[in-house]
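hey
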């Protein structure tokens, strides 16, 4: 946590060292189970990568920070992550998303000792509503930012709030210059900022606020006060230059020289104005990776001074250099726009993915309900089948006892065959009676439906059932007549070959195979899945001791 905070402190004077410190914090956090440490390091990296114009990388940082924060119960860190997310969305011009994330940060920080973060949230909300020209909400959130800053006791937060309040009063004064008290209020808060930053210099991290306040005061005295106040302008310009040079902030340096040159231009001393611009440009260019936009602005000012001095050749030379920098600024601007668009695209893509995941979750929830219903139905069916099996087993045991008693009374194979033939005839007669009774019942139902035209759909369904039933009756008759021709020793041979391991269902399968029915037809007869027939054939081959490559159909034909 300390390393991540150090990265935040160092960014003004040494951005590479700041990034190294934050990345080291992230590396150390990977060994910890609590996600707050990685989340905090990644949120800090989000801020630092924006400072070096790496918006895409910053977006990845904040996305990862949100993932880690989901495993943390530290509301202060989680609130800070949402704060940085809202800030980044504001940077890439997504005010709606930004305000939603910032309000999420406020909700997360509610009741927590995090007044400094709350002050920042209110500050960014004020900026959003300022861009939207909503002056009422701008003032509301600026005031809340100052109140939270006071509560935090953090000098950086207080300076940040002072700068915002002072800018707000100056903006109001520009709209209505008759209200001198607005200008006085702006001067008051900017001076308060400078006094606080001087008194708490060892605790101040963000010195840019102090430089901006000094520039604001110098500009106020230049714009709204007579030339007699030039001493005040010089005083605040000197303060701004000291801060700008210390922090390496080129815009503060350039603007300081720009205000000084305005006095020289107003006096008609164009050489002095040019000299001031050149001094400022020299300082800016001495910085490694100096801002193209700042250099372009200063060269534009030099071209304007040369033109006013009546030196078109020099003006043209400065203007050409200005155009070179402006061209580079334009290219950099296009790259920045491309980065913002990429970040916006990634954000929208994530939103769509989230919507799809939510839809899938809802679908899975419905599917789970269906599965639970099927499981319950399956359990009931299994219960029924289990009871039916025990009933049939009991019936089978009784039947086997009867057969054993019957076999004991038989004296010869001929008498046994005669008895089987008699029993088959009885079963056939009983089956025919059942079929006739069933057909009469179905015919009665069809006649009843015929008297009710409103049941046409049900009547049509009944007609289909009758046709299917008649076809099944025909199949039964065909099977019975075909089985009658099979040699009675066929089943004995099958059982001998299988060591009496074949069940009644296995024998029925063998009968259908002998009749030449396909797997699909057998499945239809038995009302089972075709895959079940394949498994049954495999078991029968094993019981008949057939090899994998042997044909079950051919073996059964030979046994018949």
């Amino acid at each position: 946590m300390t390393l991540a905070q150090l990265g935040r402190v160092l960014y003004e004077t040494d951005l590479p060292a700041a990034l190294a410190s934050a990345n080291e914090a992230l590396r150390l956090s990977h060994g910890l189970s609590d996600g707050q440490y990685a989340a905090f390091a990644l949120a800090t990296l989000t801020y630092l990568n924006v400072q070096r114009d790496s918006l895409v990388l910053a977006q990845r940082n904040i996305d990862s920070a949100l993932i880690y924060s989901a495993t943390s119960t530290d509301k202060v860190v989680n609130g800070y992550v949402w704060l940085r997310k809202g800030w980044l969305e504001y940077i890439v011009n997504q005010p709606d998303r930004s305000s939603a994330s910032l309000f999420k940060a406020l909700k997360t920080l509610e009741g927590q000792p995090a007044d400094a973060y709350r002050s920042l949230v209110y500050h960014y909300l004020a900026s959003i509503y300022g861009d939207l020209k909503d002056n009422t909400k701008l003032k509301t959130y600026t005031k809340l930012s100052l109140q939270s800053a006071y509560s935090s006791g953090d000098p950086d937060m207080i300076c940040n709030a002072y700068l915002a309040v002072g800018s707000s009063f100056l903006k109001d004064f520009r709209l209505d210059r008759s209200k001198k008290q607005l200008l006085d209020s702006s001067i008051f808060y900017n001076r308060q900022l400078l006094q606080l930053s001087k008194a708490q210099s060892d605790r101040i991290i963000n010195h840019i606020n102090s430089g901006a306040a000094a520039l604001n005061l110098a500009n106020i005295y230049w714009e709204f006060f007579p030339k007699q106040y030039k001493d005040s302008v010089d005083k605040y310009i000197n303060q701004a230059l000291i801060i700008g040079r210390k922090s390496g902030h080129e815009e503060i340096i350039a603007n300081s020289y720009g205000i000084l040159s305005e006095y020289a231009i107003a006096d008609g001393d164009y050489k002095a104005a040019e000299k001031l611009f050149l001094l400022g440009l020299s300082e800016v260019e001495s910085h490694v990776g100096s801002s193209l936009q700042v250099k372009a602005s200063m060269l534009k000012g030099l071209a304007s001074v040369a033109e006013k001095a009546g030196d078109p050749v020099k003006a043209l030379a400065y203007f050409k250099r200005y155009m070179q920098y402006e061209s580079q600024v334009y290219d950099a601007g296009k790259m920045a726009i491309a980065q913002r668009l990429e970040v916006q695209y990634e954000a929208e893509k994530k939103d769509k993915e989230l919507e799809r995941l939510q839809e899938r979750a809802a679908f899975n929830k419905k599917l789970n309900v269906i599965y639970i219903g099927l499981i319950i139905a399956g359990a009931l069916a299994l219960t029924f089948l289990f009871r039916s099996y025990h009933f049939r087993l009991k019936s089978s045991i009784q039947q086997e006892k009867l057969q054993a008693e019957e076999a004991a009374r038989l004296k010869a194979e001929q008498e046994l065959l005669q008895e089987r033939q008699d029993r088959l005839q009885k079963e056939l007669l009983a089956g025919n009676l059942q079929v006739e009774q069933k057909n009469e019942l179905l015919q009665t139902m069809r006649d009843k439906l015929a008297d009710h035209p409103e049941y046409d759909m049900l009547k049509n369904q009944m007609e289909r059932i009758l046709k299917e039933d008649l076809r099944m009756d025909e199949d039964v008759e065909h099977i019975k007549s075909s089985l009658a021709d099979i040699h009675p020793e066929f089943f004995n041979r099958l059982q001998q070959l299988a060591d009496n391991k074949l069940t009644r269902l296995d024998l029925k399968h063998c009968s259908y195979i002998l009749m030449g029915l396909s797997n699909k037809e057998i499945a239809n007869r038995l009302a089972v899945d075709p895959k079940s027939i394949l498994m049954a054939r495999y078991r029968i081959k094993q019981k008949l001791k057939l090899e994998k490559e042997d044909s079950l159909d051919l073996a059964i034909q030979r046994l018949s």
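Confidence is low (pLDDT under 50) at residues 428-433. DSSP finds 23 helices and no strands in the chain.
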